[in-house]
Records
---
Amino acid sequence: MKGLKLSSDIDKDFLSKQTPGFSGADIANVCNEAALVAARKNKKLIEKQDFLDAIDRIIGGLEKRSKVITPEEKRTIAYHESGHASVSWQLRWGNPLVKVTIVPRGKALGAAWYLPEERQITTYEQIFDELTSLVAGRAAEEIVFGKISTGALNDLERATKMAFSLVVYYGMSPKVGNVSYYDSTGQSEWNFTKPFSEKTNEDIDTEVKRLIDEAYGRAKEIILASRDKLDKLAEVLYEREVIFRDDVEQIYGPRPWDKKEESEQDGDTASTNSTEQTGDTLSTEVTEQTDNTDQA
């Protein structure tokens, strides 16, 4: 940011929280884009909103205000994204929210940025929490409007792949058992037969559906238990079109697990005299609600 003419409303700590996982080159790109955004608006100083617009453009693509969205569709998208944010916030292994927007960009009608924890191994409980968060958008739609939409296509695709991996690759299904059909050699791509029987194939289909159904039911239970807070969050998102982690924390309160992890990290730092930065600040995840009505 050196050399840029900045407005007095610039909060560097806040901006750093919006760019997890960005390299030095990425940050430089954001600064250049923010300067261009300010120049297009004939501003003499670069303001906070210019940086936010630059980050959105780099991650999500060009903003498409010309895309016609009815108030009903906008409210559906707001509840969909709020469902993701709400459930993820309340789950022990849900990824903490960074930002949610319902401004159309590219093919996306809405998008949410999360900060996943960096892990070397992952447990069943951690994957199932992520699976529950993925289907929470559709769960919120069904609870609030009594119907579902095609906006969950991307979520369902990812959820199905995640559940399939649990069963077929990681051996985490009681019915299929501790077996893995993952081929690290890549030779299975050239085989015309599956490495398991038709009976096992049926069991896999059953287990994948069971996992997604259980995650969906769990998401609905969480949303129903805090429906009033979901409504507040969705209304804020509907009016402002963009919300941040602080907005979710004001409604739902701080995540108790974050406090516990911070105290444990402080204790580890004190005992080892280490100043290493934890890995969970170095990666980011984007969740999109894609406009695929032609595939309904």
---
Amino acid sequence: MAFRFTQDQTLLADALGEIASRHWTLEHRSARFGGDIAPEKALRRELAEAGVLGLSASEAAGGMGMGLVDLMPCLEMAGRHCLPDWVARHLLNLPLLESCTDGAVAASTGESIIGLCVEGDLQPDCDQIDVLLRFTAAGLETCQNYQGENLETVDAGRPLRRLDPAGSGRLIAEGEAALELRKTAFNLAVLGDCLQLLGLAQAAMDMSVAYAKERQQFGKPIGAQQAVKHQLADALIALEFARPMVWRAGYAQHHKQGQADGRCSAAWLLATQAARRVERAVLQVHGAMGYSFEYPLHHLLKRSWAFRRNHGNKGQHRARAEAWILENDHV
């Protein structure tokens, strides 16, 4: 299969990267990690004014009607700049909201941010989410006044809340329709994790390569040492092997192919494995500097740790991937 993104899709991601480079700099991220929410609110205004928050809404709702394949370069770019997680989730969740109820017009303009709780009771970024889609035993609910307990988390830029028991929202889908939506929502959430993991890992690699060229030991850059080269090369190979699997899974999900469940889980397995390898390599390259709170590497690593444990576990994804492979002997 020959697959490549169009020029428009890559240019859109570049435009998002330019917005992030101006309005979500290291200083902004550091302030958010320190508890200041003002930079995040300013970023939300900028993304809304640029039309980014309406990319996945239909044209009837005032959006651009972009599908998952169109969004994939943007989601990877969001990871590369360590944008708040709600940005990617909003874009992925907006079509789910539009398929069930009204509210897409407000969401497409950034007036409301859409969150999603597929399973469990943990929800990040509640201070930015205005409408929460939540799957319960009864079906899919939409909640606007949801409460919960704020939890301590390693990624201070992605605050986490344990939601109160479900049942206070408005039921918008039930039965078979809700089950189908849950499956779609889970796959989209997994792909959102994977694409952002690719961006985070690439940013960490770029930072480490630059550091290895600059840091001197014994009169020469540490990047000249074979042990450092090999660690970074192995991590890059893992990352480059994972990327096409994630893209292919996104293509399958976008086109509603029957193999989408297995491909999404296979993509998760490779993406999380690659992210783990990159995390280890870049920490080794940076040495003690990599553990410093004042050095920005921890922004990327902590977000990567969170995404690797976000939706499902290795056993669940391995079972889905194995089922897909065994059912398709031509894979």
---
Amino acid sequence: MTSIRQSTEGLLIIGHGTREPKGVAAMLDIARQTAALTRGSLVEPCFLEMASPTIAQGVGRLVAQGARRIRAVPLLLFAAGHVRRDIPRALAASQSEYPDVEIEQAAHLGCRAPIVELSARRYREAMVRQPAAAGEKTSLIMVGRGSRDADATREMYDFAEHRRRMVPVDTLQVCFLAFQQPRLPLALEQAAKSGAKQVVVQPHLLFAGTLLERFHAEVNLARKRWPATGWITTDVLGPEQLIAMAVAAESARQNRSALDAVSEGESMGGNSGGWQSDLVPGWISG
């Protein structure tokens, strides 16, 4: 068996996929930034659907470059059906095709510290662009994509609480663009009727695309309907180096876990055996 120290590490970054060229370009930008941060690993981007390369193609490219251990990082904010079913199914198919290569799935982005910090940064940037709003009470509406998965919905609320602790606001409401209630139009109406003088509406989305267009269309309607309210919108999260840092951290964890496995095997006077997974939950680490 090849020594872990001699094995080539591969990092597979899995994006959702989109038909929007800007969304694809943003994903590839994150992959390039991640590669610059993880010089000891091979890095390949791929997409779950609607764009190429596919997961199978991404794994194949890493194997062709000599990867013998691949850590697949879902570039997704929440753990819904794609993270729990679709990605594991695709990785299992690749594992069958390359039985001598170790392939494991890492955690999604979730509430990792760099993502919470990036969300807070987008809020601060929007507030800086609105100097006249200083001193006014601020309501924040955090807008998620929405999912039928109860755990993904719960994680959106968890993320919003992390954000509240990092950047306090007077009131905070969570809403969704699809699948879950409350939807964005209702949240905008409630904020306007609450008497809030300024409302920050923040899309919790990785990249620009169709969902962001829908988001802006709804906020623009609210501006026309309730002109007395100061409506402030933030940018989406990426592409941004903090996202690449969150992904690159997975490569660092992979390498540490591999070296620990070697050390343990050597201390026992035998082969290290199978490499142990070091998956991390999607919460802020202390």
---
Amino acid sequence: MILLSLPLCMFLLSNSGGRASQASEGNTGSPGDTDAFNKTCLSCHGSNIQLTNTISVTDANGSAVTSYSPGETYSVTVTLSSTGNPSSYGFQLVSERENMETSNGFTNPSSNAKLVTVGGSRQYVEQNGPSSSNEFTVEWTAPAADQGTITFYSAGIGANGNSMSSGDGGATANFALTPSATSNNEVSTTLVNVYPNPSSDFIQIDAERVKNLQIFASNGQLMQSNKELSGNEINISNLDNGLYFIQFEADNKFFTSKFVKN
């Protein structure tokens, strides 16, 4: 549920900045959202304004896609279309694997959106505040290896600006990306050597021509992403102390390893 004014609906708090940031909830309607009431925007805002929610994904060339290639970055757009005349819009977006865990990977949201992490691991995109634009965009980087079908779930609202939940409209949408036929490269089952380990500033990867590198925190949050490495040294000085997992591609194979930042 995303509220764009100051309604008293289920909770005595303002949600104009998004449910994830202000209530630590995901209200997209996805299978993995654990809110006890399984709410979306429609739970409070009804259908007085007829709203349509559309999710689209495009590649670096601006072409629409329905599949992803590991490590590639895509643009995800949520568009809220209305037959009425809402004064403002809001939304929430999440990406999930088939096991209901989030794939995360969101970066660079549009100026009317922001990134929020709930529970230390679930990454959402939602509005900064009441948006005059009905379109929200964010970049999404696919996992470094094939993780099966990944589905984007979104809930959106068109608000009439009366500072109540009455008279508004909400809508949900989902959009699935399947792994591309060319993404089924061989995945190494042997951990590649990363050294020194532990390390406080730099690590070296025992591989050449490394690309599509991703570093994940132990909670699954994407911390670093590099399409191409000029060498095999990685600066980790900006990471907090803890355990991290690293995935990358080299010689048409995917590798994984882990290291400790101290």
